[in-house]
Structures are given as structure tokens and as C-alpha cells.
Amino acid sequence: MKRLLALLLLALPASAQDRRSGFEDMARETQAMQRDDMQNPGMLWVAEGEDRFNRDCTACHSEASMRGVAARYPAWDEATGAPIDLAGRISACVERHQRVAPPARESQPLLALTAYVAHQSRGLPISRPSDPRLAPALEQGRALYGERRGQLDLSCVQCHDDNAGRRLAGSTIPQAHPTGYPLYRLEWQGVGSLQRRLRGCMTGVRSEPFAYGAAEYVALELFLNDRAAGMLLETPAVRP
Amino acid sequence: MGDIARAVPRRVALALALLLATPARADEAPLTDVPGDAARGRAIVADRTRGLCLLCHAGPIPEERFQGNLAPPLDGAGLRWSAAELRLRLVDGKRLNPDSIMPSYYRVEGLHRVSPAQRGRTILAAQEIEDVVAYLLTLREEPPR
Q1: Where does the signal sequence lie (chain A) (predicted)?
Q2: Would you call B124 an interface residue with chain A, using a CB distance cutoff of 8 Å?
Q3: Contact call for A153 and B104, based on CB within 8 A
């Protein structure tokens, strides 16, 4: 009977198996910090983003129109003919429509605006990228996720698929779902993007990270979102 | 029993690995003329930025609190393996199991996008490998159950 059950479980497609947000693996106190907006330090970035949005963006957009946007990014960018992530879109919007220098990746203004926009999708399910023009980048992301890299010669798969839930020294290895970004990380003492997190994992295996904004990161983000389709957005999440 | 089942493929794999290894790099032989120093080896194993071992393995190093569980405990390694076998696992365990997650501590070729600071450098130096082997040989008690 047990064996039959095990066989049945194996037969289920990966998507039907238990997917867990990194939230589930956190200590209770850290979970409480994320849950309570009054305690969640990421809400300070959201509030700053709201001010900037109301000042710079409402000529074209309303707050209500931002609901659901983060759940369908990265998306296809007609202007450049390439996939673009949410921070890239916001940065391009500032440049194209306000005709000022675009805010740099990982700068406070861009993190704040991105956190604010993504917060409008909190609780919504991540949607599967559907534009067929995204397919090559999605496959590139899948390949990057499976590729061994760095002096330690490890791939994302080896930690986040094969060993998720186990302990790498003191850290529980999460399943690497991008549900919370931009998020407040205790180790950073600040808010950071998904690209910053990916860089951290890349330098962790002593590999050369890509430059911020590189197509490789957008491809990985696309793949991670596809893998997490249906999971609920948490921005701004808190992580250890 | 379980041991024999494990020992057979291990011996075959080891023989294969030794056949494939060029004579100049037969990894059963020590990498240096200076015998390993077990105390220095222990310090390397305990150091998360040098040996990195406790990221994945647990071991009898009680002062290091956060030990990993991605790999079998190091306790008893000196009962299970000879110096040559331990050395091979450290130098390039992927010759035994190409899918292993354990890094190859003394190999520079065949790696991808190594960070510039580490490019062309092995994770541990030859003498450090000898020190770690000497330490592992002192681990002659099975892990606490």
C-alpha cells in the first residue's frame, strides 16, 4: 500500500507536488515580521515608492491599474524586442516618458518604485508567461538553472530542486520561488531585488555573476516565474 | 552486508579512476612529501570559508554549531576509507560519482564561469589536502545516532 502511494506520488507532475514559498521555511519571528505591515521594514520602501509614484507616474497611470502587473512580469518589451523585468520596465518608463536619466538597478528610488508596484499584486497568483516570443528566453533560463558553475561547480537544480529543505550549514535551502521580491533581507539590512538574490547565489558558488540587468538574469527570472506559476505574490517579503 | 554491496562498485570505480588517471597524477599517492598534519586539517575542515566541509557535512567538531546535512557525516571516515581513497574523494570525487555535489578540491579544469579571483586556483592547496586527509584518518568513531 505504501509502495503504491509512493509510486502514485512519483507519477504526479512536478507542478502538482508540494511547492513551498521560502516563507514556510522561516523562523516564526521572521514570519510574524513579514505578516505585520507595521513591523515589516519593506513597507518603508513601499511607502517611499507610493510617494514617487504619485509624483512622477500618475500622469499616465492610476494606482488601480498597477494591480496584477507584477504577476505577469517579465514580459515582452516591444521597444527593445526583448524580455524585460518589472524593474527594467519601470526604469525604461522613467527614461522614455519623463526624459530623465533612468534610475540605476538596485538604487533606492528604483527599489522603492518596484516594491510599490509589486505590492499592488500582493496575494495574486503568478501567471505563466504566455507570450510566445518569450519562449527562447524561458528556455535559456531553464538551461542557466541547470548549469553547473563556479569553483564549487554547483547548479541551481542541485541545491534548490535536489536538496531543498535540507540544511546548508545554518540555512534551510528554499525551493527558490521568486514570490517575495523586492524583499527585505535581514542579512542585507535593506530591500533588494531578485537579481541581487541571484547574484548572491552565483557568488556563493564562487562563480562570476552577470552584470545587473543582463539578459541572463531576465531569462532566469522568467524561468523562476514559470516554475512558480500559481503561487501567490508576497511583496514585500522578509527573508533571513 | 550493506558494506559489501557498497564496496564492490566502489572498488570498480576506484580502479577505473586510477586507470584513467595519468601516471603523473595517480591520486592514491600523497600530493606532497610533507606528511599531513591532522590538527591543521581539523582547522581547515572547521573553517567555512576554507574547507567549506561543514556547509554540507556534519562532523565531530562541537564548537561549530551550524553543520549541514546535505552529505553523510564525516564521523567514522577513517574507519571506512584509506588515505588513498580519502585523497581521491577530496581531489576529484566526481571521478567516482560525476553527479556528486561535493566540489573537487584539487581540480581547475572543466569548470564554468569561475569568479576571476579564483580562476585557475584549486579550492585547497596540495598540502592542505594532505592535512585534511590526515585529520579524516583520525575519525574512527561512527556518528552518534
Answers
A1: 1-16
A2: no
A3: yes
What is the per-residue pLDDT across A29-64, written as a single tens digit (0 to 9) for each?
999 999 999 999 999 999 999 999 999 999 999 999
CB contact under 8 A, B115 and A151: yes
3-state class (DSSP) for residue A236: coil
Which pLDDT tens digit goes with each residue over B30-61? 999 999 999 999 999 999 999 999 999 999 99
For B25-138, CATH gives: 1.10.760.10
Domains of chain A: 21-239 (1.10.760.10)
Three cell numbers written together for A168 = 546548508
Q: Which of A140, A146, A153, A135 is nearest to A216 (CA)?
A: A140
Name which of A126, A74, A92 is nearest A231 in CA terms. A126
How many other CB atoms sit within 10 Å of the CB of residue A146? 13
Please, what's the b/e burial string for A82-100 (b: 16 or more CB within 10 A of its CB; e: otherwise)?
ebbbbbbbbbebbeeeeee
